[in-house]
Amino acid sequence: MTARVKRGKLERRRGRWGYFFAFPFIIGSLLGIVYPVVLSLVYSFGNLVPQNIGYRIDFVGIENYKTLFTVDPDFTRQLVETLQNTILKVPVAIIFSFFLACILNSKFPGRGIARTVLFLPMIIFSKPVMILLNQDIVSSEMSNKGSEETVMISDKFIESLEAMNIGDGIADFLTSSVNDISNLLYMSVIPTVIILAGLQSVSRSIYEASYAEGATAWEVLWKISLPMVSPLLLVSLLYCVIDSFTGVGNTIISRVSYECFTAFNFGIGSAMAWSYLIVVLLIVALVFLIVNRFVSYDT
């Protein structure tokens, strides 16, 4: 038996063991993901009627979808508000993440301490921590006190904008960003880590050669750092878009949960979930097609 034949048998044996160890994950995916997704699609075309034992499905075609977009007075409005919220918040989060990653990537005394200090608020303002804090009375009082201080800071910020005679549109945009600083920090955690990893992978010799040629820090930022991490900026942008559409406080997600598990209106809830999924996929595809044209893959 030749060495090639032995190697082929060994590879096939390893492949069979690979399928064996992946078998629990495959079964779990089929039962826990694929089956519920297909079942929700079936539910979206019908209404569930409880029986003495179990339930039956009365299929109504696309009536549930028509109800959402032509009869329901809230779904379209909530969908538009979610889109506006994503359009306003995601660019701010990406810009903030990029400049924060650039700061953390630069060399300065106490950089490790600075990274810890800058990342602590992101951890503190994360959704799971805020939920745990709100369950405790003392922590809730601290949270309320922090909210009052945030409002005071916001008021001072608004007064400053009025004194500078900035346009109402820009002022409203900046004010809403300041008022929502906790969500901004929460959205920026993962993008900052992704962009920082990309900046750290750039050879230091490129920066040294640029500065040796007389480039300024601003030119290095726009002509080296930004193009080098532009693919990761695209990844971070897509992550923020999806995270904004699927966040805990998202109105549509809360509405789907209410319709399905509180009102037990699985037909409308499933139609709402699938409509929302299609909209999200279209937005993600549109963002990718537009932004991908400006991404540099040759660096």
Features:
about 300 residues; 2 strands
Notes on the protein architecture:
The protein is mostly helical. The protein is built from 13 helices and two strands. The chain has helices spanning 3-43, 63-71, 75-105, 111-124, 127-134, 137-163, 168-179, 181-200, 204-212, 217-228, 230-245, 251-261, 266-291; strands spanning 46-50, 55-59. A hairpin with a 4-residue loop joins strand 1 and strand 2. The protein is extended, with a radius of gyration of 25 Å. 16% of the residues are buried.
Strands, helices and their partners?
Blueprint: H1 3-43, E1 46-50, E2 55-59, H2 63-71, H3 75-105, H4 111-124, H5 127-134, H6 137-163, H7 168-179, H8 181-200, H9 204-212, H10 217-228, H11 230-245, H12 251-261, H13 266-291
Antiparallel strand pairs: 1-2
Cα radius of gyration in angstroms: 25 Å
Helix content: over 70%
Written as H for each helix and E for each strand, in order along the chain, the element string is HEEHHHHHHHHHHHH
**Strand order across the biggest sheet?**
1-2
The fraction of residues in strands falls at under 5%
State the total count of DSSP E strands. 2
Number of helices: 13
Largest sheet: number of strands, sense, barrel closure: 2 strands, antiparallel
Taking the alpha carbons of the first and last residues, their distance comes to: 48 Å
